[in-house]
Amino acid sequence: MSTPTPKGQQMGPKARNRYPALWAALEGVSTRIAVAKGKVLFQQGEAGRGVFLLREGKVRLSLHAAGRKKLPYRIAGPGNILGFPATISNAPYSLTAENLADCELGFAPAEDVINLLSKRSDLCFQAVEIMAHEVKKLRKRQAALLYLPVNSAKQL
Fold it and tell me: Which residues of 56-95 are buried (b: 16+ CB within 10 A; e: fewer)?
């Protein structure tokens, strides 16, 4: 299941290690699923239907910009939570998630995630930290794209 991380891309923060209480609580409302290499977990623009807890494997997260090919965002590895911002904000997914290897995941439906957070206020600060990290990462990526030379931007 080992797929190398593309040059210039970093594995995302491991929520399982940084937020063990949140990870454990989400595990409690999730269903285990196995998804084959090459399959798409969710598409940018789809309604956020829940979060994916990445237990094993690697997932490429990409952004589809108007008039361009998909732009790489990051590679997520085991311990990452995918689809969290869309799920808790009741918004469409802002990225596309495609498996780079066979993956073992947990899937927690949006309704269960929202119910969990409404009952466990101790987890809400962790949820806010995850959201803040995602916003910071996306802004940094967008700023980098804005300052690319025209010829480089066309190659993306």
Answer: ebbbbbbbeeeeeebeebbbbbbbbbbbbbbbbeeeebbb
How far is Cα 47 from Cα 16, in angstroms, rounded to an integer? 25
Question: Are 59 and 99 contacting, i.e. CB atoms less than 8 angstroms apart?
Answer: yes
Q: How many domains does the chain have?
A: 1
The whole domain housing 127 covers: 15-155
Task: Identify the helix (H) or strand (E) that includes residue 46.
Answer: none
Rg for the chain, CA atoms, rounded: 16
pLDDT digits (tens, 9 = 90+) for 131-148: 888 888 878 877 776 775
Q: Is residue 8 part of a domain?
A: no
How does pLDDT run across 2-32, given as a tens digit for each residue? 333 343 334 445 788 889 999 999 999 999 9
